[in-house]
TrEMBL record:
Transmembrane segments: none annotated. This is Chaperone protein dnaJ 49. PANTHER family: BNAC03G44070D PROTEIN, DNAJ HEAT SHOCK N-TERMINAL DOMAIN-CONTAINING PROTEIN. GO terms for cellular component: endoplasmic reticulum. InterPro entries: DnaJ_domain, DUF3444, J_dom_sf, Zn_ribbon_pln. It comes from Dendrobium catenatum. CDD domains: DnaJ (cd06257). It comes from the Eukaryota. Residues 12-78 form the J domain. The gene is ATJ49. It holds the Pfam family Zn_ribbon_20.
Length: 339
C-alpha cells in the first residue's frame, strides 16, 4: 500500500488516496481513515517499509481535498487535456473527463453514484428537456460578458449553489473566461460558520471576491444572478420577488439523498402539474400560501432555479399561476411526470 501511494504523482491527490476522481468529501474522509489505520506509525500493527513517508503524502492530499475551495478549483480548473464525454447510468447526466479515465469507474458529480465511464457522443443532451422553454439558450457562450455574476453547478449534487464574477471573457469559441469565485461573508456568525464547516453552502447574503481562475467549460454555468454591488469587492445576493428557489425539505440536512420544497419568493410554495416534467403550480392561495422567513432561515435555502412564468396567452390550458422550471436545477425525483 505504501509503495502504491509513493508511486503516484505528488499532485494526483485522488490516486494517492485511492479514491475515484471527483469523489465526494465523505468518501474521501472514509478512505483517509482507512489508510491512516494502515500507514500511521502509531496505529499500524507492525512496521511497514516507507509507511511514514506514504502517510505524510496521504495526509497532505487529504488536507488539500478537504479544503472546499481548493478542491473546487482542482476539479474544475485543470490544465487543458484531451477529454471525452460520458453519461451517468443513474441520472443520465453527461460529464466531461480527462481521456485517461475511459473505462474507469467514476463518481457522478450530480447523483454521486458510481458508473463505468464509456465514451458517448458530446452532442447529446444529458439533462432532461424542459416541456416548453429551452433554458440552454440563456447560457450559451455568447451570453457571457465582463462583470456578470453567474451561478455555477455544485460538484456535491449538481445544483447551482456557487457564484462567480466574470472578470474577462477571453474567447467565446473556444469558450474561455477568467472568473473570481465569490465567497460568503459570514462576519463571525457562529451558526453560518458551523454551516460552512459542515460542507453546506450559503446561498444568499453578502459575498466577497475570492480566488481568480480560468474556466473553459460553459457547461459548469447555470444562469446569470441578480446582485447589488455593496463595495469594491463586495456583492449582495438576495432572492427577488417572483424568483423561484429550492428550499431544503424538513430534516434532510445530513441525508445523502436530499429532498426539496419549491418556493416562489414572496408568493407561495409550488407543486408539480400532472402530465408535465418541469411545470409547477401554486399549492395554495390566500394567507396559507405564504410562509414568513426570518434571518435565521437563511440555511433553508439551497439554490435558485431559473424559471419562466407561463401566461394565459401561451394557450397551454394550464391552471393559473404556473411556472416552468429549468430541469438542470431540479433533482431527478422532481422531474418524474405526475399522473
Amino acid at each position: 500500500m505504501a509503495i502504491k501511494v509513493l508511486r503516484a504523482f505528488p499532485t494526483d491527490h485522488y490516486k494517492i488516496l485511492h479514491v475515484e476522481p471527483f469523489s465526494h468529501i465523505n468518501a474521501i474522509k472514509k478512505q483517509y481513515k482507512a489508510l491512516a489505520l494502515v500507514l500511521h506509525p502509531d496505529k499500524a500493527g507492525s512496521p511497514i517499509p516507507a509507511a511514514e513517508d506514504a502517510f505524510k503524502r496521504v495526509a497532505d492530499s487529504f488536507r488539500f481535498l478537504s479544503d472546499r475551495s481548493r478542491k473546487r478549483d482542482y476539479d474544475t480548473s485543470r490544465p487543458a487535456v484531451e477529454t471525452f464525454w460520458t453519461a451517468c447510468l443513474t441520472c443520465r447526466l453527461l460529464h466531461e473527463f480527462d481521456r485517461r479515465y475511459i473505462g474507469y469507474r467514476l463518481v457522478c458529480p450530480n447523483c454521486r453514484k458510481s458508473f463505468r465511464a464509456v465514451e458517448v457522443p458530446s452532442d447529446g443532451n444529458g439533462v432532461e428537456d424542459s416541456d416548453f422553454y429551452d433554458f440552454d439558450n440563456d447560457r450559451t457562450e455568447k451570453c457571457f460578458a465582463n462583470g456578470q455574476i453567474w451561478a455555477i453547478y455544485d460538484d456535491d449534487d449538481g445544483m447551482p449553489r456557487h457564484y462567480g464574477l466574470i472578470d474577462e471573457v477571453m474567447s467565446s469559441s473556444p469558450f474561455r473566461v477568467k472568473m473570481c469565485w465569490l465567497d460568503a461573508l459570514v462576519d463571525g456568525d457562529e451558526s453560518l460558520l458551523l454551516w460552512e464547516k459542515s460542507g453546506r453552502h450559503i446561498s444568499f447574503g453578502r459575498f466577497k471576491i475570492g480566488r481568480k481562475v480560468e474556466m473553459d467549460s460553459v457547461n459548469l454555468f447555470s444562469h446569470i444572478v441578480e446582485s447589488e454591488k455593496a463595495a469594491k469587492e463586495l456583492f449582495r445576493i438576495y432572492p427577488k420577488k417572483g424568483s423561484v428557489w429550492a428550499l431544503y425539505g424538513e430534516m434532510n440536512y445530513g441525508r445523502e439523498q436530499r429532498s426539496y420544497d419549491i418556493a416562489v419568493f414572496l408568493t407561495s410554495y409550488s407543486e408539480k402539474v400532472e402530465g408535465y416534467k418541469t411545470i409547477f403550480k401554486r399549492t395554495q392561495i390566500g394567507p396559507h400560501a405564504v410562509r414568513w422567513l426570518e434571518k435565521d432561515d437563511i440555511m433553508l435555502f439551497s439554490h435558485q432555479i431559473p424559471a419562466r412564468k407561463l401566461a394565459e396567452t401561451d394557450g397551454l390550458n394550464l391552471p393559473g399561476d404556473c411556472w416552468e422550471l429549468d430541469p438542470a436545477s431540479l433533482p431527478a425525483d422532481l422531474l418524474q411526470i405526475v399522473r
